[in-house]
Amino acid sequence: MYGLLGANGAGKTTAIKMLCGLLPISSGEMSLAGERGNLRSASLRQRIGYMSQKFTLYDDLSILENLHFYSGVYGIPPRQQQEKIRWVLAICGLEGQEHLLTRQLPGGWKQRVAFGASVMHEPEILFLDEPTSGVDVLARQQFWQLINDFARNGTAILVTTHYMNEAEQCNRMCFMVAGRKVAEGSASEIKAMQPGKLFELQVGELQNSYDLLRGYLEPWRGSIFGDRLHVVLDHPDGELPKIKSSLQTAHLSLAGIEPIPFSLEDAFIGEVQRAGGAPP
Known about the structure:
Blueprint: E1 2-6, H1 12-19, H2 42-45, E2 48-51, H3 63-73, H4 78-91, H5 107-119, E3 125-129, H6 137-152, E4 156-160, H7 164-167, E5 172-177, E6 180-185, H8 187-192, E7 197-203, H9 206-214, E8 222-225, E9 228-233, H10 236-249, E10 254-259, H11 264-274
């Protein structure tokens, strides 16, 4: 499983559409399932599944009718369609609900139907563009169990997400800024490659303290995490006393400072800001 992470407009959806042959490649080269030439060929498209960022099923059709439609789109022989539809309903936990209109479904169910439609022809490669956007926490957890089952069974998956806990489940990932790849590797590799040391500050006036530190630190070195400040320092022995002194002079309280490991979110914010972008 490979993750694409980036702020809105970074180019994640565009990259997927290029790989699916829906948009021309603007520069460089792409290889999909060993093919470098015609990414729009019918034979190649039969090997991929695509779940787009927006819900693409028909609201005025039932779950069953939508799945029948997509089985035809994917060229599944009529004699196999019923079997494939039963399989999709089973793996998505929708048995007994197949006659509901999709407009009546909660967000998590809609996403499961859209996922089922994208995998009913059992593709080798699956593109999932923000598959859990707008879905509640429990539904997201159930949905990722489904995604991981397919990955374990050999499906190659490329997924985009804004949720760092979801990204942690990817084997490898990259951070994108303005169509460029600025970091790549496993979650642990990306966290390990971050420059400097990370410190968490417990301060009394969060926003005022943040504004003060940004006055003399590079923008990417400071960020707000919940009710704490995270600060990246290259030379903490000399820089921490300066931070303490600055806060004290401004009459801003400092209850504690402790070194902490980089989280994936810390790494993402740092990489994006150093590349000149803005995290979401």
